[in-house]
Structures are given as C-alpha cells and as structure tokens.
Design brief:
Length: 195
C-alpha cells in the first residue's frame, strides 16, 4: 500500500512539530483539525500503551483514516512511577505545564533519588491493524527549571550523559536521544516500505 500522508491523532501541537521535523517531509502529517476532529480524545487506560491505543482506535473508528497516536509519561523513581500516565493532568485537568512542574518539584523536595524516565508508546493503525513502537530515555529531575526550549517537563529533565536539560537543547538534539525520537525512528523504519 502506498502512503503519502497519515493523521497524527494528538491535540498537542508540540508533538506534531517534533514528529514532522523527524519525518523530514517523507510523509505528510495531517492534524486532527485537518480531518474535522475537534473533540478531546479519550484516555481512560491505566497504562501508556493502553492510552496510545485508545486514542488511535477512537480516531480510526470515527474518522475511517489510517492514523497514529502517542502517549508519553514521565516516570519518577522516588514517586513510584508517578506522574506516569497522569503526566498531562498531574496538577489538575488544565494540562498546565508550569503547574505540573511546580507540583513535581514540590513533591521531590528533599528527595535524593532524582532518577526518572520519559516513556513513549506510539500506536499506529493501518488497514485496521495496530502496531506499537516504544521509546525510553533515562535521566534526572533537577532542582530548578533550566532552559526555555521544548515543552512540558523539559526544563526539569536532564538526560543521562548530558549536563543540560531537554529545554536547553535544540529540537534536533533533543529528538536525537529522546523517548519520542526513538519511537518515531521505529515508526519510520516500519513505514519505509509503505511510502
Ligand atoms: P495528546 O493529545 O497526544 O494526548 P497530551 O499533551 O495530552 O497530548 P500526553 O497525554 O501524552 O499528551 O501527556 C504527556 C504529558 O507529558 C504532558 O504533560 C506533556 O506536556 C508531557 N510531555 C510529553 N512529551 C514530553 C516531552 O518530550 N518533554 C517534556 N514533557 C513532555
């Protein structure tokens, strides 16, 4: 099957920007707005893979398109894996990045074990079949925000092997090591035969 464009089932424009850059024009990304989907996608699962799957199937079934979604969580060791699947809504339903980071830093106050990881699962649905691709990056939650690039929890996450946060990196550098970058590379390798 030949494929030149695919719907990215996300309401997060930062995710679209990062993934479009990684696809480098090989595949045209359509947004939910492009297919007339204005509603918030359901995310009721207790797992990242479950939520990715749920968002992609919702769009596939309701809009009859090939599509992929992704779900990402920040899993903090000292908080038993929280905020994890609740990363977007950690400080409440407003999906407020600043409030989420402030709450996380408050909950980590005095904590010596700062280990954390970003975990992404992409769920792709093509011709009614689901395929999943995963990416994980290990790092540390630092004590104060640093940098103003990227989005979400980037200013407080320093990947292992670097002394800068994701928010102090260009989007190219972040994507070359990030959770999303790894998962998208696997997606691209899979789609290669189809473009
Ligand atoms: P969807 O429409 O794709 O669900 P969302 O923003 O609700 O978009 P998630 O449910 O995957 O996304 O929530 C992920 C949370 O983790 C959210 O707070 C993001 O800001 C944050 N996040 C995701 N990717 C990130 C990244 O690369 N760097 C920092 N924070 C990230």
């Amino acid at each position: 099957m030949l494929m030149h464009s695919i719907v990215f089932a996300t309401g997060n424009s930062n995710k679209i920007a990062e993934v479009s850059q990684l696809l480098d024009g090989k595949i045209d990304i359509q947004s939910l707005g492009d297919i007339g989907c204005e509603e918030t996608l359901p995310e009721t699962s207790a797992t990242i893979a479950g939520n990715a799957s749920e968002k992609a199937w919702y769009v596939h079934k309701n809009y009859k398109v090939n599509c992929f979604s992704e779900d990402t969580g920040l899993e903090v060791e000292a908080l038993n894996g929280e905020p994890g699947v609740y990363s977007a809504r950690y400080a409440g339903p407003a999906h407020d990045d600043e409030a989420n980071m402030s709450l996380l830093l408050a909950n980590m106050k005095g904590e010596e074990d700062r280990r954390a990881r970003f975990h992404t699962v992409i769920a792709l649905i093509i011709d009614g079949k689901e395929h999943q691709f995963e990416g994980v990056v290990e790092g540390q939650i630092i004590h104060h925000k640093k940098g103003n690039q990227g989005f979400g929890y980037d200013p407080i996450f320093m990947p292992d092997g670097y002394n800068r946060t994701f928010a102090q990196m260009s989007s190219e550098e972040k994507s070359s090591i990030s959770h999303r970058g790894q998962a998208v590379q696997k997606l691209v390798a899979f789609l290669k035969g189809k473009v």
